[in-house]
Structure formats: structure tokens, C-alpha cells
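note to self: dont lose this again. the chain is below, predicted strucutre after it. 239 aa total, dont forget to put it in the shared folder this time
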Amino acid sequence: ADVIALGAVFGVSTCSGPIIPYRGGRVDVWEAGLSGVPEPQQDISTHEAIFARAGFTTAEMIQLVACGHTMGGVRSTDFPQLVPPNANSQEPVFEDFDTTIQFDNAVVTQYLDVPHGVTLTDEITVIPAKVHDVQLTFEKSIFVFKASFRLQQAINSTINKNRTVKMLWCDRYGSNQNCNGNTHSSLPATTVDEVATLSPVSQSQGFTFINYNFVVPVDATASIANFWFTVDENNGTLK
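---
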């Protein structure tokens, strides 16, 4: 076990990496334990469990997986969908992870760089209010309209218990078609708080989300032309 660890020290140093402090005294084992090498086809939960078993956090897992591939590449024999084989040769094709042959962070920085001729969108940021999971469907033989309305909420902040969120809509067909007449309104929505750690991005930015879920019966002959939401904080603020 000590020899393997010493080999890692020399290997990293040979590749221009940092000098890793070495200590001896590891206990040799003579039987294989659980397989600890994550496979690319496994999902993120399985990877987290494998690294956690070895004492690593999710952040450390990302660092090891990303920067741990500073040396190496992909063989066509292992992943032909990524590295096409050479039809004129029996030798496997090998593509390096980056353009350098030394211990550095190029495997990450080059992956994040924009290739020539590619135009990215403007920066995509979290919007404070979002509509999602919208559908017209049947439930217990009743034609219903379902929608969820998500609001951003600062972590550890107090939620306004007096807030009232409603959904409004108007008919697509009939005497009130295209919103030329009566507008329908739902009862106040039920709420579902998301776990603050659901996303490492939102967690690091200091916010989570509150979902307001709606299920309302709809006249199938009228359907829906438009729908929108109102947020009344009951403190003089109406959105």
C-alpha cells in the first residue's frame, strides 16, 4: 500500500504537479474490497455514494473528477461514440483530454472555452418568478388545468404567511372568447417548499424556491386562451 502511494507521489511530481507530502505506515490487505472506481454510465447519486464511502464530499468529488483527468484521454475501443475508430488500422485511436502533457488545469479551462465559430447566448440567470409543469388533462373524468408558479426565496428568510397567490385565466372559445369578457380566478394555491440544498448553484447564491401549485376545473368547450398569476403580499404590494 505504501509503494502504491509513493508511486502516486512520484507520478504527480513527474507530470509537473505539486509535491505531495508522503507518510508511510499503511496496512496492506490481501483481499479486494468493494469496487470504488466510478463508471461513466452511472448516475450522479451513485458517484456521490462511491466518493462518500471513501470520505470525500461532493465538492471534492468534482475537483477529483475534473482536475484528476489532467493526464490521459479516451480510447476508441472504450468509447467509439466519442472517439471514432480508424477503419484502416487495428490500433485504437486515442484522444487526449486536453492539449498539454503536464499536470495543470487545462482539462477544465479548455473544456469551458468556446470553440471557434460557436456563439453563446447571453448569460442565463435565475428569474425570480417562473411558471412550470403546465398541462391540460383529465383527472377522475374532470377536465382540469394544472400549473405551478415558482417564487424565489432567500435562504433562512421568513416567508410571508399572509401572501396570497392566485391564478387567473380567460376562455379561448365561446361568448367570452379571447378574454373578451369574464375572467376566471382560482382559490389561493397550496405551497410546496423546495429543499435549500436542491441545487448547489442556488444554495451558493443564497436562495431557494417556493412553489404554488394549482389544479382548476375547466370547461372543455371554452378551454383557455391566456392565464396569469397575481401575488398579493397583503401589505399594500400587489404583483
